[in-house]
Amino acid sequence: MKDVFARLASDFLSAIVFLAIYLITDNVVLATSVAVAGAIAQVIYARIKGRQLNYMTYASLALVVVLGTITLLTNDPRFMLAKPSIAHFAIGAIMLKRGWMLRYMPPIVVETVPEYVTAAGYAWAALMFVIGVGMIAVASTGDLKLWAFYLTVVAGGAKILAFAVQYVVLRLIVTSRRRAAARA
């Protein structure tokens, strides 16, 4: 679980850095420049450490560089604010692959209720798309405080709630099926 939160923090580090610097300095150019440099440094550091980087890491870096450049050219922070929504759309599209979630489940869940895990995978994809649409709507307002609230509380809270609901539901279903199999 700690690893999941570390990955999320890493994925959104450039957005967090951008927001923090922009709120402190009210300088779009400085905030964007530091966020882009930080994203590049993050990838370089991971490569130096010998970590395997996946497609999403490079896609995220490309988004930061492209949206950062557009933000610098237009002096409009909304482009940087839209970056997490694009990431949510990409993740949602990947989650549309049937059975993607099975590899993350304990063997007992995979053996007992694979059809529910597949359904949960589609539910996660839908959640990512909904969060992405909401983030674009919030980013288009240009209100950084609202965007920060949405990114942390709404989007983060929705994922934590979805994880908790999924855990409880799958646990109840697996327990029920195992009990029924033991009685039979």
From TrEMBL:
GO terms for cellular component: plasma membrane. This is Intracellular septation protein. The chain crosses the membrane at residues 12-41, 53-73, 79-96, 116-141, 147-170. The keyword Ion transport does not apply. It comes from Bradyrhizobium nanningense. Keywords: Cell membrane, Membrane, Transmembrane, Transmembrane helix. The keyword Transmembrane helix applies. InterPro entries: YciB.
